[in-house]
Amino acid sequence: MITIVSGSNRKDNKTVHFARYVHRQLLKEAGTTVHFLDLSGLEGNLITETMYKDQPQTIQHIQDHYFIPSTKFWFFIPEYNGSYPGILKLILDAISVREYDKSFVDKRACITGIASGRAGNLRGMDHLAEVLNHLGMHVHPNKNPISSIYKLLDAENSLVDKDAEASLQKQMRQFLNF
């Protein structure tokens, strides 16, 4: 099973459109179940005094439904303050206290950085890759920076840039063989 993670919890974020594009492509090409985890759909307070002792139900669901059964993950991460969103780090930290090996060890990950600027979240992809490696995951070396995203989407938030589409298709082929 593959899980696509759209790593922003902001409502109406642009990252989700790139992640959904790849999700649609993988549903056609992957030959396996492909789940989609959109962090903008999270509701309620995940931060509690005992969150690492008594996991909130939302965290348990994410771990049991998306992380434990998956063998591959594709993270789409927007650039937030020169890195990736804190909500994704919070979820990775919270999941790590229960069923650690089943959630992370020897699983594969792919990363695509999303940014309105020109660097495509290069630094954030490196930060996330370091965390995923620390958790025991193998990160694909093609970390794909998607830059100037407002020029790549049309008014309906559909991907219209052929170069961006080609780079995602290339990354997808590599990821499927990884």
Summarize the structure.
By secondary structure, the chain is of the alpha/beta class. It has helices spanning 15-29, 57-67, 86-95, 100-103, 122-134, 162-176, and strands spanning 2-6, 34-38, 72-78, 108-114, 138-139, 144-146. Strands 1, 2, 3, 4, 5 and 6 form a six-stranded parallel β-sheet that branches.
What do these coordinates show?
- This protein is of the alpha/beta class and 178 residues long.
- It is 38% helix and 16% strand.
- The chain has six helices and six strands.
- Strands 1, 2, 3, 4, 5 and 6 form a six-stranded parallel sheet that branches.
- β1 (2-6), α1 (15-29) and β2 form a beta-alpha-beta unit.
- The mean pLDDT is 94.
